[in-house]
Amino acid sequence: MPSSSSTAARVLSLFEELLGMKIPVRVRCWDGSEAGPADAVCISFVTRRALRHVLWSPNELGPIRAFVQGDLDIEGDVFELLSMPGLVKNLGDAGVRSLSTKTVLKSAATLARLGAIGPRPQRPSIEAQRRRGLKHSRSRDSSSVSHHYDVGNDFYRLLLGSSMVYSCAYWTQPDVSAPAENGGLEQAQYDKLDLVCRKLGLKPGMRLLDVGCGWGSMAIHAARHYGVSVVGVTLSREQHVWAVEHVAAEGLSGLVEIRVQDYRDVDDGPFDAISSIGMSEHVGDAQLPEYAATLFGLLRPKGRLLNHAIAAVGAIADKGGTVDAHMSAFVERYIFPDGEILPLSRTMDALERAGLEVRDSEALREHYAITLRAWVTRLRNDWERATELVGEARARTWLLYLVGSALGFEEAGRLTIHQVLAVRPDTDGASGLPRTRRLWLGDL
């Protein structure tokens, strides 16, 4: 065991002081010293620069930037590390701001002894910079979507599998111990798309608008299996290229049109049904009323809307209705610039105020946890190829993001996801929906 004065022991003690908790991890430092339990997850400080990242950003961004740059490494189970009680929470801004002056001065002295004092390290090049333009304007939304989705279709194919569906799957089989293997993920995504089609009551001859159509999987499924005519819109040019090619390969070009278009610019309604799967997280609280009103205006009377979206839990901050839609600094900078996760009640309120009638909501929280773990398995199993496609830095951000998200859905009270079914009533108030779920799902 290293002495208590070793570099690794000092680093471990420093982080325990900053976080205000014991951390059951092993630390290895650039000089070869080690400290902590031998059988624990190992955090390797490859260079002193890892500590400078923390010095300049004493919150979650410091260690993350060090990890993304390769100055810090994780040896062992990332799920085990991120699920340690209090670790992620105490890394947040609120925990750092609450540090006493005494703790700050003591930590600074330790950093100085470790040779970590120095200029601010360069931020990873893949970190989103300050956003230009009005938040959720058409141009800024397009830029934010491009940051997330236009990183290479081959990378998403590696991550998502042949389904190319980047949203929560629907796991109907009792055994999902290895969800990424033996076609389990593909079947679960097929079942999710089919569930959406049945909830929308799709029939041959209908027109479907798929908002945020991704790589066209929903559009292709609806046209192939339900005979509907589909317009799919996306802001991602790489998604558009993939979707158009695959629509043609399926022989569905006569039924499916994929556009690079903002949903606010769709003007060829009405549609019999609208699907919005994993898209409204990009809309934002301020734009949610416009989103709901726009989709209402594009639906025929008795037309159905299926809004499939992640929801925050307990996010309404005060009696005035202010919503805390705060994304973590990591997710905002590296994954979803301008993304906002809103409470389910906010979404339902916007839909109803727009004139839609909410008829059903189904929670799929556990389904998304399984889906995310399947994506993590795919990423880990083909890590070398992933780094070839998008670089080591971006692959590392995706690993952190997927693992953290899976844990967020596994723990009740953090994140959830709902499929909300709404309808535009006819002038006489008729919804056109059968009276029971079994009937409108087609489970006869």
Tell me what the structure shows.
This protein has helices spanning 7-19, 49-56, 61-69, 78-82, 87-91, 93-97, 101-113, 138-149, 153-160, 184-199, 217-226, 237-249, 288-298, 329-335, 344-353, 365-381, 383-390, 392-410, 437-440, and strands at residues 26-28, 34-35, 42-45, 72-75, 207-211, 229-234, 256-260, 271-277, 299-312, 357-363, 415-423. With 444 residues, it is an alpha/beta fold. The strands form two sheets. The chain has a seven-stranded mixed sheet with strand order 7-6-5-8-9-11-10. It has a four-stranded mixed sheet with strand order 2-1-3-4. It is elongated, with a radius of gyration of 24 Å.
- Count the helices. How many? 19
Helix proportion of residues, in percent?
40-55%
Q: How many DSSP E strands?
A: 11
Shape, per Cα inertia axes: elongated
Query: Order of strands across the biggest sheet?
Result: 7-6-5-8-9-11-10
Mean pLDDT over the residues? 87
N-to-C SSE string, H for helix and E for strand:
HEEEHHEHHHHHHHEHEHEEHEHHEHHHEH
The parts where pLDDT drops under 50 for at least 5 residues are 316-320
Structural class: alpha/beta
Distance between the termini: 67 Å
Report the biggest beta sheet as strand number plus sense, adding barrel if it closes. Answer: 7 strands, mixed
Percentage of β-strand residues: 5-15%
Gyration radius, in Å:
24 Å
